[in-house]
Design brief:
The structure holds two protein chains of two kinds.
Chain A: E1 10-21, E2 24-36, E3 41-45, H1 52-60, E4 67-75, E5 78-79, H2 85-91, E6 96-99, H3 113-125, H4 129-142, H5 148-151, H6 161-173, E7 179-183, H7 191-208, E8 211-216, H8 219-225, E9 228-233, E10 236-242, H9 243-249, H10 253-260, H11 301-305, E11 311-313, H12 329-332, E12 334-336, H13 341-347
Parallel strand pairs in A: 3-8, 3-9, 6-7, 7-8
Antiparallel strand pairs in A: 1-2, 1-4, 4-5, 9-10, 10-12, 11-12
Helix pairs in contact in A: 3-4, 3-6, 4-6, 6-7
Chain B: H1 2-16, H2 18-39, H3 72-108, H4 110-124, H5 128-139, H6 143-170, H7 173-180, H8 185-221, H9 233-241, H10 249-276, H11 278-281
Helix pairs in contact in B: 2-3, 2-10, 3-4, 3-6, 3-8, 4-6, 5-6, 6-8, 7-8, 8-9, 8-10, 9-10
The chains are: A alpha/beta, B mainly alpha.
Chain lengths: 348, 284
Amino acid sequence: MTTSSTTPLLSVRNLRVALQTSHGQLEALRGVDFEMQRGDTLGLIGESGCGKSLTALAIMGLLPDRATVSGSIELNGTELTPMSDEALCTLRGARMAMIFQEPMTALNPLHPIWKQIAEPLQLHQGMDLATAKARALELLDRVQLPRARERLDNYPHQLSGGQRQRVMISIALACQPDILIADEPTTALDVTVQKEVLALIRQLVAEDGMGLLLISHDLGLMRDQVESVMVMYGGAVVESAPTQELFGMRAHPYTQGLFAARPKLGLKRGTRLQTIAGNVPEIFNWPLGCAFAERCAYVQDSCRQTLPELERVPNTGRVKVSQRADLSAPFAEHWVRCPEWEKLEALK
Amino acid sequence: MSTLKSFKHSAQRAFKHRSFGVGAAIVMLLVVSATVSLFWSPYPVGDIDIPNKLAAASAQHWFGTDSLGRDIASLLLVGSQNSLLVGFIAVGIGLGLGVPLGLLASAQRGWVEEVVMRAADFTFAFPALLSAILLTAIYGPGLVVSITAIGIFNIPVFARITRGAANAVWSRDFTLAARAAGKTKWDITWEHVLPNVASVLIVQATVQFAIAILAEAALSYLGLGTQPPNPSWGRMLNEAQSQMFQAPMLAVYPGIAIALAVLGLNLMGDGLRDLLDPRLSRMR
């Protein structure tokens, strides 16, 4: 799939995660593939339980003990899946970092914030406490925390949600990692603060030339923040494309449903929003084939039996693929996991 | 400077809390009397004064004398040393072994947790008194044996409570965030989990302290604890039993001492539970 000669920053191949539950062994990720270069920004979109966060945790090696991983995750050409927890500890925080959804609970209430920023610096760069504190101040300035010097000794409860998320970002960026995974970083924040925080993440990622994997269920956020989007449903990627292309074309029935369900300005009062019929199937009820089959208007018998392959959608030329010419190959291509997509396209 | 100020602030807040204030005052009284009795007591505790036996309370003998003419006040003062010693060492054993075991179980999960917790269940099945009697049967009665027995009983108590509280901390996002920052389980246990379970442990320690004092009194009452001539509240109760009808006050004094010590520790523990609750301390 890739033609790039350099080693990708992050390469995920056929990532499968099985969870041991009271219902037996369940496959929660059914083969996720993607590849990122430095500077790439990738969005991961889908509803709760589709496997977005699981993908992120699998990359970080933070899955619960009852999960088994198969497939390959390579960071800068190093395979991560067989690594011991000790070996992964030297990479987490240093080469790959993560921002969590809830800034209210992701900081330890008992430590002042400078100490929590200093921790990865002491751990990975061997800084002494004084140097680390000075660096913590620089980092807080960098994430534009107002009156950073006074805030150093504050405890998490003395900060607002947006301020705490800025602190989380400064912790994640402390050691200048190669890749930043942001798992719904703004879901818990006010709408006005969301934009600021995301813009900040975008800016810092661009400055340091990191890769950004942004996880969200907010379509509007994705459009402005990432170059490429993957849509997940039922533990599998159902569509992936450059952002403009995906927003313009929506080849998969689920993606179409997702967009149709968005509230829009100018709707008449009392208009019911469109919904996707049915419910997300419980993980222990996932069919052998496409997890969307039961809710899909275009379902074929074959969809129920086997998970359709990802098919390449040729560039129709209707949408500008990307402003960037140097996008890595899978980024510039449009893939969809639905055998019916051509018929759907003809219906439009 | 700011730490001194915040210390003063929390001290003020602590003593405004009624049950903590009362409890801490009683515990202070206990500690002070034990300390004072190390250097001074109204009469030497070993002094027998048969002509003066079973004397009523007077200026010479504040609480009177017992069947051998020993000064009750002196016996009570020196007896408090015993209670405190047992409390400190038994709780120390419980904290020193139980907390690491609980933290280990919580950090490792899986079979390690299973083994530690089942072992705790097994130990817990033997009440302190029963294991003390068992140990006495083997090693003979004495203070060391009773302290050891009560200490062993404390290990599963602290192991369980630590594991329970630690599991709750492990399920919070900041431990996941710490792992994402590259911390090992042991770093996280030390820096994040232990400080967050400390308040629970402090409260439990005061409760266990009270239980240890009660258990020591019970053992001494049965003749399995502190041996004569060392005074102990439990033994005083035992000796008072035979004079129940001639001198009922002999049983009342050590009884009050035990009850007061336990009450003080429990009140203090109750107060600490409120004061150390971060949700309450945030309301400044």
